[in-house]
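Dear support,

I submitted the protein below through the web form. The confirmation email said the job was done, but the results page showed an empty box. After a refresh the structure appeared. I'm attaching both so you can tell me whether what I see now is the final result or a partial one.
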Amino acid sequence: MRHRNPSVSMLALLMAWVSTAYAVDPGEAVGPVQVVDSNGQPLAIENYADHRGTAFLFMSGRCPVTDKVIGEVNTLYQRYRRRGVLFAGVCSNRVESSADLTAYARNSGMIFTIYRDPSGRVAGQLGATLTPVVFLVGSDGNLAYHGGLGQENGIETFENAIKGLIANEPAPASSAPDVGTPIDKPGKKVAKPNPYGKISFSSEMVFEQLPDAACVHCSTLAQAPNGDLLCLWYGGSFESADDQVLFLARKKPGRHRWQTPEVLLANQDQPPGNGVIFVDGLKRVWIVWGRMESRRPMIRGSGWDRCRLMYRVSTDNGQSWSRDQPMIGDDEAVKDERLWMVPRNGPIQLAGGRFVLPLEAILDGVDGGVFLLSDDEGNSWRRGGFTPGGSQPTLAQRNNGTLVALMRKGPRITSSESADGGQTWSDATHTELRNPDAGISMTTLNNGHWVLVFNNTAFYRTPLSIVRSTDEGTTWETPLNLESNPGEYSYPSIIQSADGQIQISYTFRRYTIKHVEMNEDWLIHTERPN
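What the results page shows now:
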């Protein structure tokens, strides 16, 4: 009995397949194309008269050349589908399943279907030997063009053929399919990741109304060591009122609603103003606030130029607190400098372990930003550098160690840098980012990207926008609006929680505090291919 060598047979088949010229020449009838749909059912494609043109694209999810040009193919289809041109993918091998092809199409942003041709019947009918190659059929059912897509001018020539078909002009000369993968040898399976991400976004009011506060403002966020989100803000009858207090609300992990806010700190003689909440390297929760020491009664919105910086600490996730203390000693040196400070954004911990707390400050009558430094996990703090040219700094550190402070200032946000961990700062310069002289907040994500929330306008506190930088603040992407209706949406706070989600809080029309949670994909993928 004579036995055949399988490898020799396959080689002979491949040589015969590759050496075969196209089975259908331009101008000849194509006839029905019999494929298999995703349910494994036969489908005869012959509705050529329904379209200006029908393009059969032989492709494979295992073909690197197909993968290289698939973005251009998608763009081409978007351009001509509204002009009546249909694209239909054909995969003529036995190894790629419908599930494989569907996943490849979905993760490639394709908006046309890939049908199976496991027997190679369609490939033989048209004479296709490589992927990727295209056969363009006119509304009369005759072949208008065939050619490869993998070579340098493949996509351009294909598009010219489409234009000619629409204009009833002769098709260009076919380009030989000289670059690609043999149809019967698709190669190994390659997992194609989903480049379009998964959109996550939710928002809610932290509360609807507080009986003890008609006006609320200046929220700040932190995540306690046990996973609770903590939100701190001040509220009272009006800004700088005698009854102004600090409120704290808590949101448990996995819950969609915040617990009822509690009054955390009240002092009618010296009301608390702006506060920040953060967690240090020892898993202690800190609250730092400006104690307003102007003589009462105060004019609405005044008193910020005479605030003493105070703090308290919790070792049980914000359930109980230490006694209130000044952040830096109330000694004669401090008094002589006449230094008054107000917090707006929390500190960052530098690569070397130092904590740098940014503050709005008035030093000898000059408004600007000052930075408190701690090299012992907050057990002691000392004054770092002072920089005019902006206020209420928010911080990020570059990979080269440079510390960058963005500051509120109209009509554009200003920037100052420190190369020595906050001891000294460069002169402030204007950035491209607009600002109506209102609070801003920035955080560095785990992947190194910077995200900033700010009012993207020179005059009003709406819209409230969010913007990302992937090059450490050198350039910024197009801002997206969180709020754009009339009203005030201001003084944001932004952090990244342990689960990777971006957490934002901000003043909502002075009625309440709003909380927004999103993932980074929400900032990037504004439209899914469809």
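Response: this is the final, complete result; the empty box was a page-load delay. The chain has a mean pLDDT of 91.
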